[in-house]
Amino acid sequence: MVVFKIKKVINNNILCVTDVKSHEMIVTGCGIGFKRKVGETIDSAAVEKVYQMTNLKIQQRLTDLLEQIPYEHFQLTDELVETIRARISYPLNESLLITLADHISFAIKRKEKGMLYANPLLTPIREYYPQEYQLGLYCLKRIHEKLGVDFPDDEAGFIALHIVNAELNTTMSAMNDITRFVDGCVKVIESYYQKTFNRDSLAFNRLTVHLRFFAQRLVQNEQEKYEDTHDQEFCSLIASNCQEHYQCAKQVAAYVKTMWHKDTTREEILFLTIHLKRLNLAEETPEN
């Protein structure tokens, strides 16, 4: 049986402990911290769940958060994050539990004071992050069922951004820029083709996913770039055979240069060309 040493009593249900190798972690359990003191030991039989982050700074953030929010808010968020991880195919940053618990708890406190924030990015969030937005709505439903708190759809949009943020491993501030970036690129694309694409199509979803990761690469200065001769030949082939879509991709690159002051590599333009061709082919032959 594993024995833990108490480093800090957070509340009656949460302890900060260390194991025999001095690894720090959070353990939870009903009444696990009641009348406990620092330095005492506790065996694993009393522990319901263990939280051990890979990064010590993140571990400290978790400890700090648990001292500030109600245990029931953390418990519910933990349940929500498990559901989100099960439904999202991309790896999610381990900080999601912390950022989402902090956001949900703060949102509940704001609601109690009659303070609700409108989400200015709600429309593009619905369009470009449909899966994450639906998970945001699911979270609102569970919050209502468990805590009796009702939120408008704007809050589902905020939760969706936290999920996408965990997918891209970036900051919430960057996520706002990425969302505006994707929205701007889509407007350029639809203006070029003089049509509005089906937001529910798989091809449109693939395009917006590509654009969000393209935005992330731009922010991190890690754009796709290859020097191999065969890759260069492939690039030339795509540019010559998909001229209409290639010109559209170049217009997107011009928009990125003008509005975001970033140059787009030829490789990025060609990858976008391929997505644009797939999108238009899908529009011509609707999915069943």
How would you summarize the topology of this molecule?
Layout: E1 3-11, E2 14-18, E3 24-28, E4 41-43, E5 49-51, H1 56-66, H2 71-87, H3 96-112, H4 122-128, H5 130-147, H6 153-168, H7 172-193, H8 202-219, H9 229-241, H10 243-260, H11 266-284
Antiparallel strand pairs: 1-2, 1-4, 2-3, 3-5
Helix pairs in contact: 2-3, 3-6, 5-6, 6-7, 7-8, 7-10, 8-11, 10-11
Quick structural summary:
The protein is built from 11 helices and 5 strands.
Structural class: alpha+beta
State the share of residues found in helices, binned by percent.
Answer: 55-70%
Distance between the termini: 56 Å
**Proportion of residues in β-strands:** 5-15%
Q: Determine and state the CATH class of the largest domain.
A: Mainly Alpha
The succession of helices and strands, N to C, reads EEEEEHHHHHHHHHHH
Low-confidence stretches: 226-230
User: What is the averaged pLDDT score?
Assistant: 89
